[in-house]
Specification:
Radius of gyration: 30 Å
Structural class: alpha+beta
Number of helices: 8
CATH class of the largest domain: Alpha Beta
Helix content: 25-40%
Largest sheet: 8 strands, mixed
CATH architecture of the largest domain: Alpha-Beta Complex
Oligomer: single chain
Strand content: 15-25%
Length: about 325
């Protein structure tokens, strides 16, 4: 065998060994990289989880096609009702027996006593843990919020399977005017609640946070049903099940709401912007509400009937059995 042939074979063996080392190294890097990526997504290290979900959302949105431009639940601008005023109820004058009735009896008007203003502490949920739903994905707050409302109303359980089922149906309810980038807007939440047996939910807009909270308190009392608050400028969902105030907001216009009972689907996560979430049913004081329940402002575009306003999804139909 000539030297040139031996040299060629040796060179081929060296190239094969180098190729095996390169392939082995690439596999190790891929496995380690996948493990690190999975850990980063699971813990949201360096924001990897959010970036991964953003990529997945773009893929899902591409596969679903354009957001349909179709009619959906309107956003209703609500103005605060005037404070109730006492009414005057005339008391008829009955003549004594045998007396000649006066041709022009003059009843003495007696004002109806004004309602008393008493402190209110209302919460329609006795066991928050039993109805609380944590979002299975960090972008499923709306899904978990809808599911929590349904659980409070006895219309759904709190399982991940149910959450995935609700999430899978968003294409039935999405509309461009509700969410420019598809997925879940407040109108889709109202339609989902209707589809699962809770009709009458309405998307409402308010110029002030106190107006939104007073209206939510009235809705909760009258229907015994939760209200959804669009927190974080419309990026997040809170479920309000009650409130505390220095009077009944259904009667007194200037009631001061000191806080609300909240189910936060973000729990037990930490947000780099909004901080830690509170456990289910936490009484959230007014100052904390003011930091989180902010006027609607979305980065994907303008919403003429919502921009700069406080948005809620409020019940209008009393829960079955509440009268």
């Amino acid at each position: 065998m000539t030297r040139s042939i031996r040299h060629a074979r040796h060179a081929r063996r060296i190239r094969r060994r180098r190729l095996r080392r390169i392939v082995a190294g690439a596999l190790i890097v891929a496995v380690l990289g996948a493990s690190v990526t999975t850990l980063a997504i699971a813990t949201d290290a360096f924001g990897a989880g959010q970036r991964w979900l953003a990529v997945m959302n773009r893929i899902e949105r591409f596969l679903a096609g354009p957001v349909p431009d179709r009619p959906t639940r309107a956003t209703v601008l609500v103005t605060e009702p005037p404070e109730a005023t006492p009414t005057v109820t005339p008391i008829p004058v009955t003549p004594e027996p045998g007396a000649t009735p006066s041709p022009t009896p003059l009843p003495t008007p007696t004002p109806t006593p004004a309602p008393k203003r008493v402190k209110m502490d209302v919460d329609i949920v006795d066991n928050p843990d039993a109805v609380f739903v944590s979002e299975a994905r960090s972008d499923w707050c709306a899904v978990a919020g809808v599911q929590s409302v349904l659980a409070v109303l006895g219309l759904a359980d709190t399982s991940d399977a149910t959450q995935r089922k609700i999430a899978s149906r968003v294409r039935e309810w999405e509309a461009y005017s509700d969410s420019h980038n598809g997925e879940w807007g407040p109108a889709a939440m109202a339609l989902a609640l209707d589809a699962y047996g809770a009709p009458g939910y309405e998307v409402r807009a308010f110029k002030t946070m106190t107006g939104a909270l007073r209206d939510a308190g009235v809705a909760i009392q009258e229907t015994q049903s939760p209200v959804i608050l669009l927190a974080w400028r419309g990026a997040h969902t809170w479920v309000m099940t009650g409130y505390r105030g220095d009077g009944d907001p259904a009667i007194f216009k200037n009631v001061r709401i000191s806080g609300a009972y909240i189910l936060d689907p973000w729990y037990p996560r930490l947000s780099s912007i909004w901080g830690y979430s509170n456990p289910p049913g936490t009484f959230t004081k007014f100052d904390e509400l003011r930091e989180n329940f902010l006027p609607w402002k979305r980065p994907e575009g303008h919403y003429p009937d919502r921009d700069g306003l406080y948005i809620t999804v409020a019940p209008t139909v009393p829960r079955s059995g509440t009268g």
